[in-house]
């Protein structure tokens, strides 16, 4: 597989978030196709992808990288020290506050790492000369520090290891005024500190992705092993990569050098408002919708430092996956054409109709109702009432076939309807529907002169239409109605 290339050291990972987003919080980068909020996967490209349908998806194995933080409490002591600096040829001395801290690179072992974060007492002035503290403000001010650690031995290799650690300090204190000559009282300085150690996991995953490369599902492979030796087969080491990630998360937006020994973040600045003052503040506020940690009005004892550690872990994993998703083409060498190709599976789109239990029950009920309705209309069809259904001229003729009515209307075909009615009135005859013996001496049912052989009562006509089956249904329906009442 691919290995980290040397040009990774020159990548400006700080471009992930624009510094202006602190003033106008709007992220300018979305998740790149080979990334998820927690993982980066070495991208795969199917052969002849231009021939595939855009709705097709693929499944194959690739290497995935995940970075996380493990945080614990950190002891940081604040001391008042003398600081000397030159202004031209003049040497000036002033007092500064200095937070010093030490820890091991790993939980209980590894190189000894140390760091410090300084602040000038002048930076606490409320005379209006300091950005972030209004003139005359006497409330609480807040400061958070995301400092840099170095190896106590000043060894290059150990410096890289310590550079990946992530110390965090949150503090509260009071502003200083000119009336007390900017004298700082260390007892007013309250703080909480943690140190977060990075952990990089590199394993083989089975991923499902679409034609654009966007991840749909992921699952670690059953036979997955640690793939770090293959990923870091080049000159770039794991500690160098993690040190660069720590620099990406630094609070100072003005440092783009990405130098491991950079002093960025060693100077602390206080503020009287809860606005984000750096990348981490901005990302914590954006992801968790909270400014509690950086709000001066939140007492230091109310800050849940363990919760902050969990939130930093989420931010760290997200920035790691996004950064590699954006810059992976520069950070990893491409596999040679002779390298064996990865086998995968292509899923063709299939249209399936899914129906819920409620929809199935509703459909079944409607079909059952239609079935009963069809039986009802069949039983009460007109043909059961009229043996020869008069729906056409031929069927109408059957009602009068062999009937004496034909003798009464013979010769009236050229008369109008009114004239034919007057003619029948003069005959003074009554006609009815029932049984009669036709001129062919056959018993028929139709329209004939009265008297008929047998008039059919309404109930008889109805019963004949229902038939035995219909009468049975009617009987049980009436029985059920009486029972329910």
UniProtKB/TrEMBL annotation:
Key words, A-Z: Membrane, Transmembrane, Transmembrane helix
Top-level taxon of origin: Eukaryota
Sequence intervals crossing the membrane: 359-379
Record protein name field: Uncharacterized protein
Organism: Arthrobotrys conoides
